[in-house]
Amino acid sequence: MKTIASILTVAALAASLGTASAQPRTPAPAPAAPAGPVLEDFVPSTKNQPQQQYPMVNSQGYVRFCIDAPDAKSVVVTLGLGGSGGTVLSKGEDGKWWGTTAGPMDEGFHYYHLIIDGGVFNDPGTNNYYGSTRWESGVEVPAHDAAFYAERNIPHGKVEQILFWSPSTNCLRRAFVYTPPTYNPKSGKKYPVLYLQHGWGEDETAWSVQGHANLIMDNLIADGKIDPFIIVMTYGMTNEFGRGMGLRNWSPDAFQTVLVDELVPFVDSHYKTYKDKNHRAMAGLSMGGMETHSITLARPETFGWWGLLSGGTYRPDEIKTEVKGIFMSCGSKENAAGVTKAGEDLRAAGYNAVDYISEGTAHEFLTWRRSLYQMAQMLFK
Question: Which CATH number fits domain 148-376: 2.102.30.10, 3.20.140.10, 3.60.150.10, 3.40.50.1820?
Fold first, then answer.
């Protein structure tokens, strides 16, 4: 959900929620900023369409673009360093537009689009990813710790689409369900469930596509770091406030009904799940964290584990129920002090609380991939 068009929106949201984080349990040092010239070891981004060479990334984190628009008068890529306004491309002798980011980008996934003569377009070189309430282009800057979401020759779970009728909204709604490799609907084994929400501008595809949630889970299970559980990802109706309503007028109440009173019973009736709060978790990133905060406090009988990923904090005085565990996180480039203090306060009040910071990242998917990796090892223990 991080484009030039949406950075201010989500940053303001994060600030309004008190978004922050604390030191990781096992901090991974970020690469040092490159010194000297840009290295010419560029390779195609892993998010490119088949056979497309650009955009490219190099070992320092720079991103290079090449756009074939011979009749254009101006081409700008919205991906760039904070405050730079993106990357302005220059027309080459071959008629194509070329450019490289002014500096290295944060590791991980980034949304972007092109502005050609004032019009907004996607880069034909990349796949499309739903973010900022539209399909965007995407680029992946390789992370030094990417092994935890790497594709490996191990047993893999399934991500399947489900459709469920929502009486409260009078329509058919969609969710995606991750079931671990050990899941067998014919066996008697039951599983806990994490209801995992996307951020503003995204939808129910975000966590499995941009976030690699299924690969993170598969790797954790294969490495024996967690006991398997199910993840349910559905559209949080978070984009409605962007259509003239304003954040102050937006309420999660409609989604609360869909999630708690309609989707949870549907999942419990169609999957092998434990049907009690101590085996259910809810977590979300950014706006999904705002939803999580509101719903877990309003419906404490439903979820026993709570997670806010760049989505604010809990205070001891607002918790009126028994909770099994609380997880809070964000990137080191966000407001870290708030979650650090919130974690300390919750632990001092006797709560099982973990705070985590993703080193070297901001309000972006590597923060949330790392957060899911850490949070999954806490849940249902």
Answer: 3.40.50.1820
Look at the alpha carbons of 115, 116, 121, 127 in this order and tell me if their dihedral is positive or negative.
Answer: negative
SS3 188: coil
In degrees, to the nearest 5, what angle opens at C-alpha 76 toward C-alphas 75 and 77? 125
CATH number for the domain whose boundaries are 38-143: 2.60.40.10
Grouping H, G, I as helix, E, B as strand and the rest as coil, residue 131 is: strand
Tell me which amino acid residue 126 is: T
Q: Which two tokens stand for residue 225?
A: 């770091």
pLDDT of the residue at 80 = 84
Residue 185 has φ and ψ, to the nearest 5°, of -65, -15
pLDDT, tens digit, for every residue of 217-230? 999 999 999 999 99
- CA 234/CA 292 separation, integer angstroms: 13
Q: Where are the domains of the chain?
A: 38-143, 148-376
Quick: pLDDT tens for 248-307: 677 889 999 999 999 999 999 999 999 999 999 999 999 999 999 999 999 999 999 999
State both tokens at 268. Answer: 């419990």
Show the tokens assigned to 316.
């001891």
- Cβ–Cβ < 8 Å for 309, 368: yes
